Amino acid sequence: MSTGGSTQLTSLFDNAILNQIERMRLKPRRRLTNRSRGEHLSGKGGSSTDFADYRDYASGDDLRYVDWNIFARLHRPYIKQFQHEEELHVVLLVDASTSMLFDDKLLRARQLAAAFGIMGLLSVEKVSAYAIHQKADQPWMLPPGSGRARIRSLLTFLEKVEGGGDIPVERAIETMLKFHRGRGIAVLLSDFLTLGDLTRPLNLLYSSGLEVWGVQVLSDSEINPNVQGDLRFVDSETGETLDITNAAELLNIYQDQRLWLQESLDTMCRRRNGRFLSLSSASSLSTILFDQLCRLGWVLR
Amino acid sequence: MNWPGFSNLFGAWFFLAMVPLIILYFLKLKRPRLEVSSLALWQSVVNDQRVNSPFQKFRRNLLLLLQLLLLALLVAALMQPFLRADAARAEYLPVLIDCSASMSAVDESTGKSRLDLVREQVREMIDGLHGDQQLALFSFSATGRRLTEFTNDRRVLTRALASLEPSHLPGQLDDVLRMAAAYTRTFTIEKVMILTDGNLPDQVDFELPFGLDIKRIAPGGPNIGITEMSARRSSAEEWEVFVRVAGSSADIRSGELQLFENGIRTATETIEVAADESQRLVFPVSSTDAVLLEARVVPAGFDALDIDNSVWLTLPAARPLKIWISTELFSWQHAVRVLPRIDLNTVTPPPAPEYDLLISDDDKLTNVEAPIQIFVGVIPSDLQPLIEPAEDVASVVDWNRTAPLLRHVQMTDVQIGEKPTFAPGIGAKDLEERGYEILVDGNTGPLLLQRREGLKISYWFLFHTDRSTLPYRLGFPIIAANAVEAALKQASLSEVAAAPTGVLPPISLQPDREYRVKNPAGEEVTFRSSTTGVLTGVPAAHAGRYDVFDGSDLTTSIGTGLLNPLESSLQVADEVRFTELSVSSTDTSRLESDQPLWWLLAMLAFVLMLAEWWYFQRGRGAMT
Q: What pTM, to 2 d.p., does this model score?
């Protein structure tokens, strides 16, 4: 898609970035696809034009796939197998809780979700989006859809996502799975600063056939907090308080804890054939999209 | 181990201030609120730190703990803790400070006198005084002086201590101990502390009603000084002046002894003395007029005590001894007339009002005075009811051989034609009560009596010598010569000795007249002479020259010196014997007074406060 003049298609990023995104494709680790057709090549046995393998003929096989040249030479029937071209379901889960309102975390999450979504839609995949916002059982969602025409809806949905939610990410994942059907990629865009355990929701995602792509978006004040003295921290979501004495002395432990959280999230994602990336909201979108994600092999340009 | 005591236990009530402090702390503890995206990480941090640091709970309340500690230190300081130097601490403690001459001895290295050292120690003691402890300061030299009543007022005690000056007098304990003992009636005194250099008489006639703690500081450096000075007339115009110089150190120390006559140096001798080797020097002095002599020691090296370096002695003008003898006493006249340098008069009645020696057979003489009087064949009127004369032969039973009048006199087998006899029921004790001393005892009563009245001495022969064989005995001219010798001494015509400090010797002046006496310190005091023309009782606390003025005219000068071998020797008595027990003196360079700890606690509190301020201010400053 291209834009003419100076009119911006979306407020999330400018048209120049959009143009570049349009030329990119998602690169999942495994082909967890749906049975319906798509542009992603699945395992052998498909009906695409890409040859995959041979196998012995079995009774009931479609005779159209018998390789007659080999039958002529070997006098035995072999069936030619072709790659499947099946649909990949891209699930975008944007954490819109209050904690994401710090600095530009939510904006960066929405931008990344839009980018991943556009890449999916232009690959003729099904793309659905969910926003973690409310406690209610009904999530703020964009139903699955595919095709270029869906891009507009996706961008509009993400533009409207506002912060202020108070539902933790682990509960949001479980709620989302109640509405989701299909295999593919689940892109979780969150700060993952939750007191809950993410093991169960990630297991549920994996068992649902979704490859988990965890993207942790942290602000600079979370990566390198500049605090000193005796403080009373107030949780932006719950309002709970925590008294800290001489916070400066605790910064080393804080960094250890932050890195430990990253490592554990990375491990959890990898064990479920997924990926994990922690990034700063202060990093530019271009750097993230065209540099970090490409180098890490998340996307193809 | 002695546990610390507290002088002000009521201060412990202030520990209750901890309660409002804790309440206020929790009420007023307000931390800056900081909204964070999530507490998840910080909660993990806190949990992790609690696991790793078991004292985190305490660290959280570090400020409170520091403030409680600060308050505890301040309250403890308010309670005035102290370390007991002695478990049995005396509540009332008299402190007797030696101010004798030897306390002026200075140390060669520090230049501090003994009294300075004692002053420092007592000052420490005063500083360490507690609320329930009271001191009474006394000073003593020849006599005792109370400086303060029992008090714990540091200002009063310090002022009294500052007023202490070393005297030029020898040290005597009796007087001051009696003063301290007088307090036992009103205060519970368990112990009396004496601070001295140990230069004390080793025997004191005193029964101790309390314990005695003699603290001895180190004596001063080496000293040499004059311990004796006297003069004897060798001829009509010649005197022999004797000066004894003693030292205090074991090694021999040298110097010069200079003799000044009326302020002009006339002789110089080199001296070398050690602790047990005094040196006696003799100087001939020719003079018929009165001369004021000064002997001055100039030590070659360091000298710890300079009080004893100068001594004054007044030589009287030469004159014949004035003697009056009754006209009828031929035997006495014969015996006396042959003696040299006398002016004998036998005219009755005596033409002059004053004589140096008067020998009479009549006690009714009026308008005539003499310092030495001999009455022959006279019973004193106040003894006449006690002693009855009898016409019988008496013999000598015993006599006082050491009496000046009877020195070298043999009284055995003297036959006496009169027999003084005690009245029934009367004995020697009755005579003593009336001031008479028996010099010669007869078989039925006294034969010779002596009576002292001030400077005047009278001898009473209760029998007439002409009615005895005494004038025919060898002893009679000896008695006459002894009487003349005593009169010479009394008139200072044959021997004079330098006066030690204390009280000036009696001075013969115009009767009943006011005189000003100017002491070596320049102070003037007015005294009145007696009706007999004697000025007595003039205090002489300082060694040096005393000038006596009649109006503005200098009448006479008289000098004093320390003249105390014990003080000059700076000798230390390790033990002082009292009536019932002996008390050892102990060396001390520092008194073991209770050590106050309040200042230490206050200092700790101050340091803690500074540390707390620095710690928390540093943290807040960096938080911006």
A: 0.54
